Amino acid sequence: MANSKTVIFKIKRQQTPESKPYWEEFELQYRPGMNVTSALMDIAANPVTRQGKPTTPVTYDSNCLEEICGSCAMLINGQAKMACSALVANLKQPITLEPFSKFPIVRDLAVDRSVLFENLKGVKAWVPVDGTYDLGTGPRQSSEMQEEAYPLSNCISCCCCMEACPQFNDKTGFVGAATIAQVRLFNSHPTGKALKTERLKALMGDGGIQECGYAQNCVEICPKELPLTKSIADVGGQVMWQAVKDFFRT
Amino acid sequence: MASSASSIDTSSARIKKGVAPLRAGQGYSFVLRRLHSLSGIVPIGAFLIEHFISNSEASKGVQAYNDQVKFLTSLPFVHVLEWVFIFLPLLYHGIYGLYIWYKGDSNVGEYPWSGNWLYTSQRWTGIIAFIYIAYHVIDLRFLGVHLMGGGYQNAFSKVWFDFQSPWTIAFYVIGIVAASWHFAYGVWLFAAKWGLTTGDNARRKFGYVCTALALVLIGIGLWTITGFVRTPAAQVPWVEHD
Ligand code: HEM
Ligand code: SF4
Ligand code: SF4
Ligand code: FES
User: Fold this and answer.
1) Is residue B17 in some structural domain?
2) How far is A48 from chain B (nearest CA, A)?
3) What pTM does this model have?
4) Could you say which of A220, A224, B165, B174 would form a disulfide bridge with A154 (CB–CB 3.0 to 4.6 Å)?
C-alpha cells in the first residue's frame, strides 16, 4: 500500500433538534490537501463507523468550499472554525467535530444561526436607498474610507465570533461582535449614515454593546480577520456620545 | 420513494431555542452596565489612588501617618463623603460585578488567549479585592479603636498591631496586588469600551501604561506595609481609649 495513513474523526451527532446527542467514530484514508468538509463528504460516500457499523451520512452545512459563504462553521477540536478551510494536516488527531454549542441544533453538525440575521435586522445593517424614484449615484467615498470599510464588508456571517465569545449566551442575549462591526460599516457609509442614530439606539437595548467584556476572542477567532475589537471600541464611543446627547439634549 | 421530503423540516421559524436576538429599545442594562464601568474609575478608582498615597505616609513614620488620618477624618461631612463616594459605589460595583460574572461564561479552556485570560482574571481579582476590602473596612473602620472624631492618634498603632501577624500581612499583599491589578486592567477596559483607545496601536500602548500603573500601585502598597513592619514596638504609642 502506497498510502495507508488514516485519519480518525470523532463526531457528535444528533438526529433531531430535541433528541439526545451521541458520538460516532470514523476512520478515513488520508488524502493530501484533505479538509474537514472533504472528510465529511468521504463519510457521506461510505457511511460506516470505525467499528464497521453502517450509519447515516453526517449532516453538515457547506456551500462555497472556499471560506466565503460562511455556512460550514463548527467546533473542530473544541474551537469554532470553518470546516472547508480546516486542513486535516494541521489538526491534532483524533479530530473531534461538534455542532456550535450556542445555537439550536437542526441535525448533527448543522445549526440554526438565524439569530445573527435577526440582530442585523435589529440594527438596520443596510444602506437605505429604497424610494419611489431613482436616487442617482451616491456620494464619492475617499480611498481612506474604502480602506476602513472593506475589511468590515468581509464578514461572512459564520457566527464564529459569537460562539467563541464568553458573553454570548442565554443569560446575556448579547448581540455579538459581528453585528457591532456591521454597525460601524454602515454608520461610516455616506448614505448608510442616515440610520446612524437608530442603529446606536438599538445597540443600547438589552443584549446590546454594553454586554461585551472585551475578552477579544472574537477578533482572534474570526476567519476573515475583521477588526472586531477596534469596531467594538469605535462603536462603543459612538454609542456613548449618542447616550450623552440623548441625556442632555432631549 | 414513498415518503415525501416534507418530513424533514428545516425552517428556522420552528426552532425557538438559542440566544435571544438584540432587544432594541428595551431595558436598562446599558445604563447599569456603563455606570458599573464608570464607578470603577470614579469614584472607586480615584479613591483607591488617594488611599494608597495617603497610606504611604506610613513610610515616613508614626507622626506623619497620624497627621494624614487627622486631616482625612476632619474633612467636613466625612460620614456623608465616605458613604456616597466610597461604600455605596463599592457595593454597587461589587454586587453588580458579581451579577456580570454570573452572566458570562468564561471559556479559557477552549480559547486560552491572553485577552480571554485577562477577562477571567478581572472576575477573580474583583472577588479577591471584594473579600479583602470587606475584611479591611470592617476590621479597621468599624471594629476596634475608633479613629474618627479625634481618635486619629491611634491610627498607626491600630494597623501596626494588626501587622504583628504574618497572616495578616500576607492577606494585605494579596489584597493590594488584586485590587491594583483589577483597577489597572479596569482602566484599560474602560478606555477600550468607551471608545477612547479605538486603534489597535493605541490599545497596545495604553496596555503598557496600565501595566506600569499596576506595578506602581503595587509598589506603593508594599512600601507602605514595610513602613509599619520596619517601625520598632518602642516607637509605637499606645493611647488609652474607652
Ligand atoms: C468589590 C469587588 C469587585 C468586583 C466583584 C468587581 C467586578 C468587576 C467586573 C466583573 C468587571 C468587568 C466588567 C466587564 O468586563 O464588563 C469590573 C471592571 C472594573 N472594575 Fe471592578 N470589581 C470589584 C472591585 C473593584 C475595585 C475595588 C475597583 C477599583 C479600584 C474596581 C475597578 C474596576 C474598573 C475600573 C473596571 C473596568 C470597567 C469596565 O469594565 O469598563 N473594581 N469589575
Ligand atoms: S471582545 Fe470578547 S466579549 Fe466582546 S464581543 Fe469579542 S469575544 Fe465577546
Ligand atoms: S465577524 Fe468574522 S467571525 Fe464574526 S460572523 Fe463575521 S466573519 Fe464570522
Ligand atoms: S463552505 Fe463556505 S465557508 Fe466553508
Assistant:
1) no
2) 23
3) 0.93
4) A224
- With a CB-CB cutoff of 8 Å, which residues 172-191 of chain B face chain A? 189
Tell me the shortest Cα–Cα distance from A23 to chain B, in angstroms. 19
Tell the CATH topology of A6-111.
Answer: Ubiquitin-like (UB roll) (3.10.20)
Supply the pLDDT for residue A3: 53
| Predicted pLDDT of residue B65 | 97
Instruction: Give the residue numbers spanning the domain of B224.
Output: 31-235
CATH top-level class of A114-249:
mainly alpha
Helices B200-230 and B155-162, packing angle to 10 deg: 90
Complex ipTM: 0.94
Residue B6 has pLDDT above 60, yes or no: no
Nearest to B113 among A114, A216, A237 (CB): A216
Instruction: Name which of B9-23, B126-140, B210-224 the model is least confident about.
Output: B9-23
Which positions 116-155 of B are in contact with A (Cβ < 8 Å)?
Answer: 116, 118-119, 122
CA proximity to B173, closest of B210, B224, B122, B209: B224
Task: Find out whether the peptide bond into A151 is cis, omega within 30 degrees of 0.
Answer: no
pLDDT classification of B8: cutoffs 50, 70, 90: low
Which band of pLDDT confidence, cut at 50, 70 and 90, is reported for residue B1?
very low
| CATH assignment at residue B205 | 1.20.1300.10
Residue at B24 is within a domain? no
B141 located within any domain: yes
The pLDDT value given to residue A216: 98
Closest Cβ–Cβ partner in B12, B29, B115 for A215: B115
Answer yes or no: do B20 and A115 touch at CB < 8 A: yes
What is the mean predicted confidence (pLDDT) over A122-149? 92
- The 8-class DSSP code of residue A23 comes to E
Query: Searching chain A, which residue's CA lies closest to the CA of residue B7?
Result: A16
- At residue B12 the predicted structure's pLDDT band, cuts being 50, 70 and 90, is very low
| Cβ contacts of A47 within 8 Å, gap of 6 or more | A54, A55, A56, A57, A58
Question: b/e map of A122-153 (b: 16 or more CB within 10 Å)?
Answer: bbbbebeeeeeeeeeeeeeeeeeeeebbebbe
The C-alpha atoms of residue A6 and residue B105 are separated, in whole angstroms, by 36
Where does chain A hold its CATH 1.10.1060.10 domain(s)? Answer: 114-249
Assess if residue B4 is contained within a domain: no
